[in-house]
Amino acid sequence: MRFSSFVLASLIAAATLSAAESPRAHTYSIVARDPAAGQLGVAVQSHWFSVGTVVSWAEAGVGAVATQSLADPAYGPLGLELMKAGRSATQALEALTSTDPGAAYRQVAMIDADGDVAAFTGGSAIAAAGHIIGNNFSVQANLMRNAEVWPAMAEAFRTADGDLADRMLAALEAAESAGGDIRGRQSAALLVVSGTSTGKPWVDRVFDVRVDDSDEPLGDLRRLVRLRRAYNHMNRGDELAGEKRWEEAMAEYSAGAALAPEIEELRFWVAVTLFSAGREEEALPIFREVFAINPDWVEVARRLPESELLPNDPEKLKRIFALR
After folding, report:
1. Where are the alpha helices (DSSP H) in the chain?
2. CA 50, CA 70: separation in Å to the nearest integer?
3. Which residues touch 309 (CB under 8 Å, ≥6 apart)?
4. Which of 13, 39, 233, 286 is the 20 to 30 Å CA partner of 157?
5. pTM here?
């Protein structure tokens, strides 16, 4: 599907907000792509409540968008629709800004699944404001304490280790260290999607975490990313356990539990998987630890044999329930 100029203008006219109506999502953000994994993402921090609901947009196999300053959220879905219809990030952004009467107040960045990157900082964006486009990323900021914020973000992203989420977090933290938003901080968000679409958006969202109101949003965001990684492993473990692929499930559960040792539920499922795989002597001490933290897990364990998540063997089950 390709949009004609008339259709595009009609869509923008119907969706675009005036500067007076726009959320004041002054902020710093990054849009980026991991060329190896194909993942696409956007991350943001601001002194504005729930900034992720305004700024962050991404779709697997299509692209990612950050729309901020006197933000028009319509740039998110419209930009993704244009990229899905075959326009590059550069073409999509130009099409939107060229027909937006409030463009001078906008700051927008887009990246598509092929790695094309585009960014725009309107002349009326509040200083310090600017952007840097690099290989597979763009960083952008406005209402910053100084003009060193977005260069610090670019350098951090280029040099950081880890996957796309880690590198985008490093960029946000570098922005804060360089001075950040002159108003302070309140919320943050990180969204990462797969490089190709499965047709199931809930599967394609690798990370989708937000901190809507916090004194330390970046610290909270990093914690949530860690937990999301842990639960990604747990979810994969559930899939493998359902297929009776116990060793592979055990590896996933163990990885998840190691990432979030403070959550006893993750250890509980490690014990369940070990016990079901016949490794009872390894499982029992973990059950004992979990039951000591919260006795309700004993009742959870009692309900599992009927769902075939524990062996329905009375003699074996006695060994678990004797630990309460």
Report:
1. 5-15, 52-55, 75-84, 89-98, 149-159, 164-177, 201-204, 217-242, 246-259, 264-276, 280-293, 296-303, 314-321
2. 15
3. 241, 272, 276
4. 233
5. 0.90
Burial 205-216 (b: 16+ CB within 10 A, else e): bbbbbbbbeeee
Helices (H) and strands (E) in the chain, counts: 13, 11
CA angle (223, 227, 228) in 5-degree steps: 115
pLDDT along the chain (324 residues), means of 10: 51 54 75 97 97 97 97 96 98 97 96 98 97 98 98 98 98 98 97 96 96 98 98 93 88 94 94 92 96 96 94 94 88
* Alpha-carbon span 294 to 115, nearest angstrom: 48
For residues 26 and 62, is the Cβ–Cβ distance under 8 A? no
CB 257 within 8 A of CB 266: yes
Two structure tokens written together for 93: 């952004």
> Coil, strand, or helix at residue 40?
strand
- Region of 227 on the Ramachandran plot (φ > 0 left; ψ -120 to 50 alpha; else beta): alpha
How far apart are the C-alpha atoms of 233 and 231, rounded to whole Å?
A: 5
